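Lay summary. Proteins are chains of building blocks that fold into shapes, and those shapes determine what they do. In this project we predict the shape from the chain. Here is one chain we studied, written as its sequence of building blocks.
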Amino acid sequence: MNFPKTNKHLPKGLYIIYEDDAILVIDKPAGLLGVSSEKEKERTAYYALTDYVRKGCAKSNKRIFIVHRIDKDTSGVLVFAKSEKAKLFLQDHWKETRKKYLAVVHGKFKKKSDIITSYLTGSKALRVYSTPDKESGKLSRTAYRVIKETNNYSLLEIDLLTGRKHQIRVHMAEAGNPVAGDIKYGRHDPHCPRMALHALSISFKHPASRKQLTFRTDIPDIFQKLVGHIPSIDDL
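And here is the predicted shape, written in a compact code that computers can read:
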């Protein structure tokens, strides 16, 4: 579903791609937190959108509700609810939501499509990793398909089958193909000034109309700079 994007009264690079009485769908730029952290409370998409729905009136009772998250350095589609009822509906039906990502990763894959499965857990240093211990780890499944290969990179379409913290980044790094620009799980890449991970589209049932909606964002320019021309992927 294509809608004109607007960023009136919003930070640079943050766009609203759809809004109605129940939901707010945005295109978040890389480098902007979706929601607040211990270190940052105001420079977030959530803070900017709260101000947007209040139209600058701090005393307004209008608010938005967090439905899901994407990493600060990941760009792409992010959904907020405009009521608690809408939020609970979306979260209750989250397993039915389809989320597609694009990633540019280092190297090539022997299998051009596969599902990576592991149990993910976290360390005290806030790093996520796979563990053989099914009790301490959470089942995590990432489906990928190679769209294009170059000498140094592979462009992947990724179906996020579960939504664990840093899931795609960890699965790619542990496969030996870290996401380009991912300093935490990969390595510094002078050709990639940001992490090459993008939430391309999301499909879910609308909390009020119950219609199935799909929203898609544009592919960031850095992806073509890394892998050259990207073939048509309108069916993603």
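What the prediction tells us: The two ends are 12 Å apart (CA to CA).
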